[in-house]
Design a protein that fits this description.
Blueprint: E1 28-31, E2 35-38, E3 44-48, E4 55-61, E5 68-74, H1 75-81, E6 88-89, E7 106-115, E8 126-131, E9 140-141, H2 157-170, E10 173-175, E11 180-182
Antiparallel strand pairs: 1-2, 2-3, 3-4, 4-8, 5-6, 5-7, 8-9, 10-11
């Protein structure tokens, strides 16, 4: 027998405002239920239980992932040294540059990705705390980041509250083998939900 269990009683990857902390996209794939990866940059994610509160913690394992980014090539280097010379992967919020000269022109290669060169001092992982009926931490760096980055500012509390509203009519009850609890909205409305037996 095979059973897929959702830690916290919900799947954070179904949430439209749940974005990858690296590429800021919202498309994910589960590989044989062994792990979840971002469809755009290949960052790996793990979902684990909180310290006892209803909800879950999502980890983005930056250091352990083979992260890819959109490919850019240098026009001048390609003309001089052959096609694809100077090609590198850059995230969409990064400014592509050529190692040979800052005056060279970088051109985006459509539908091609290359390994991403993480900025020096970039964090090794991010984590996100999602507490049902409570709060959303936003993505937090898992260690000191030399670039001064501590929190990314997304997803927000407001987005989390809206997502939780969709969970109550859809699921009604957060149940796993590890924990059983009722989802109650922040407004403390009376909710008529049968308790698990």
């Amino acid at each position: 027998m095979f059973q897929v269990e959702e830690i916290g009683g919900f799947n954070p990857f179904e949430w439209k405002d749940f974005l990858c902390p690296i590429c800021k996209k919202n498309d994910f794939t589960s590989l044989s239920h062994a792990k979840v990866v971002c469809d755009h940059c290949n960052a790996e994610f793990v979902v684990r239980m909180t310290g006892g509160d209803p909800g879950c913690v999502v980890d983005c394992l930056v250091e352990k992932s083979n992260i890819y980014a959109p490919s850019w090539i240098c026009r001048e280097c390609s003309e001089e040294k052959g096609f694809n010379a100077g090609g590198r992967g850059f995230m969409e919020d990064e400014t592509p540059f050529c190692n040979e000269s800052s005056f060279h022109t970088m051109i985006r290669e459509e539908h091609i990705s290359r390994p991403w060169n993480k900025p020096e001092g970039f964090t090794k992982y991010f984590y996100l705390i999602l507490k049902l009926g409570d709060y959303c931490s936003s993505w937090i760096t898992g260690e000191y980041d030399k670039n001064g980055l501590e929190k990314l500012g997304f997803p927000t509390e407001e987005q989390w509250s809206k997502f939780q509203e969709t969970l109550i009519p859809k699921k009604g009850l957060g149940v796993t083998h590890h924990a059983r609890y009722i989802l109650i909205p922040k407004e403390k409305e009376e909710v008529d939900i049968p308790l698990p037996m």
